[in-house]
Amino acid sequence: MAQEEELKLYGLWASPLCMTVEVALKLKGVNYEYIQEDFANKSEDLLRHNPMHRKVPVLVHKGKPLAETLIIAQYIDATWEEPPLLPEDPYERAMVCFWVDFLYSKLLPVSRTIFLSEGEKREKAIEEMAELIRRMSKELSDRVPLPNDKGLGLLDIAMGTSYFWLRALGEIAGVELVSEEKAPFMYSSLVKLESHAVAKEVLPERGTLVEHALSVREKMRASIAF
């Protein structure tokens, strides 16, 4: 039985986390079944496969589930060797994982606050986001050569999909959260994604993403208020 058989990805098409996993799978050229989840009505399979976090993405390979984007991406890279998504050098590999984790543990949680909140709480979150991006951009500019200079790798994928989401979120919030000037490394990663035929397949149409996000926000706000 081929390794890619019995491979399922539970995800949400608008999630930058799920986009990252799907781009990684497509770059590896493996066949998988994509199962679209509903954030308001999570499937029993999703809850069974990810009982701790109860969220997407979840990758199930030969009946064995994996949760959390960075862990899934590392598993994909170790299971299907070509093309590599992570550097061979242990230090560079660790630095890629550090920055991907920074995106997912620092930037994206703040983006959620911007997405759902209003007034002073949202303004504080916007300021926090600006400071995080400023610090990240400074640190990355001081690290030359950058880990993703040799092609489309995990850092590019994670940075590019995050930029894609933050740009859409900025349109929703009426503020420029990211730009080529503010986040040059993230911007260059998005350019790489959008110019790559395989990766480009995963990125949704920008207007569709904004429209969908607005609809989701109203439902989530109503749920929180309830």
From TrEMBL:
GST N-terminal domain location: 5-84
MF term (GO), any: glutathione transferase activity
Keyword Transferase appears in the UniProt entry: yes
A Gene Ontology annotation in the biological process aspect, one of them, is: glutathione metabolic process
List where in the cell it is found: Cytoplasm, Cytosol
SUPFAM superfamilies of this UniProt entry?
A: GST C-terminal domain-like (SSF47616), Thioredoxin-like (SSF52833)
Enumerate the catalysed reactions: RX + glutathione = an S-substituted glutathione + a halide anion + H(+)
Superkingdom of origin organism = Eukaryota
Assigned EC number: 2.5.1.18
Gene Ontology CC annotations of this record: cytosol
Please give the Pfam families that the UniProt record associates with this protein: GST_N (PF02798)
Q: Does the keyword Cell membrane apply?
A: no
The alphabetized UniProt keywords are: Cytoplasm, Transferase
**GST C-terminal domain segment(s):** 89-223
What does this protein do, in the record's words? Answer: Is involved in the conjugation of reduced glutathione to a wide number of exogenous and endogenous hydrophobic electrophiles.
Record PANTHER family: GLUTATHIONE S-TRANSFERASE U8 (PTHR11260:SF676), GLUTATHIONE S-TRANSFERASE, GST, SUPERFAMILY, GST DOMAIN CONTAINING (PTHR11260)
- Write out the similarity annotation: Belongs to the GST superfamily. Tau family.
| Protein's UniProt name | Glutathione S-transferase
Gene source species: Colocasia esculenta
